Amino acid sequence: MPEVEINQIDRCFENIRLKDKSKEKILLSSIAQQGVRDPLKCVVKQGGQLILLDGFKRLRCCHVLGLGVVPVESLGDDETAAILQLIRSSNAQSLNFLEQGAMIDELKEKYNLSTGEIALQLERSPAWVSIRSGVIDEMSPVIKEAIFSGSFPVRSYLYTLRPFTRVNGFKKSELEVFFKSVS
To answer: What is d(CA 62, CA 50) in angstroms, rounded to the nearest whole number?
Structure first.
């Protein structure tokens, strides 16, 4: 398992992965005692550029601890294929519902894949893909920032506040004011 310097790793997908301060605190203690046990999963582009897809909490913990190198695992050199592989494997592992949706949204916007193409690649139904993508599309930038930064609980949004966005006459701007107030 190769190790690389943490400053060589591109974090461009960090804003679509959820932060959880309590999990990071536990992970920080574990890494301080035992080091990084699971490698960070990266796309290794031509020329050696590393793009992190999985392991953001570990990377932040290493940065806090002043560790200069981390173990990495290559998911290949194709970002699209790597994102699809990560989503596919996440059903049993690391990505939650919103993170899957954000990754699907990236595939649609950045790589111009259709819902059908993504569903075929993931061996899922188009409805499975559409539901995840739809939740992300419903979120304003203010709400995304609050949720993905960890300053607002995901569960509260999904099961308590999100249903209000479908009520006739409900203004999304009011929801944004609420998010800004409590985040």
So the answer is: 17
DSSP labels for 97-139?
A: HHHHHHHHHHHHHHH---HHHHHHHHT--HHHHHHHHHHHHHS
- The 10 Å Cβ neighbour count of residue 155 is 7
Q: What percent of the chain has pLDDT over 70?
A: 96
Q: Helix, strand or coil for residue 50?
A: strand
Diameter of the chain measured on Cα atoms: 55
Predicted confidence (pLDDT) per residue in 111-132, tens digit:
999 999 999 888 889 999 999 9
Token reading at 37: 């046990």
User: If we measure between CA atoms, which residue out of 111, 116, 48 comes closest to residue 81?
Assistant: 111
Q: State pLDDT tens for residues 50-74.
A: 999 999 999 999 999 999 999 999 9
What's the CA gap between 148 and 22, in Å, rounded? 14
CA distance to 78, 86, 111, 170, 180, per residue, from 81 (Å): 5, 9, 11, 39, 36
Res 164 pLDDT > 80 = no
Please, what is the end-to-end C-alpha distance for the chain in angstroms?
A: 39
SS3 92: coil
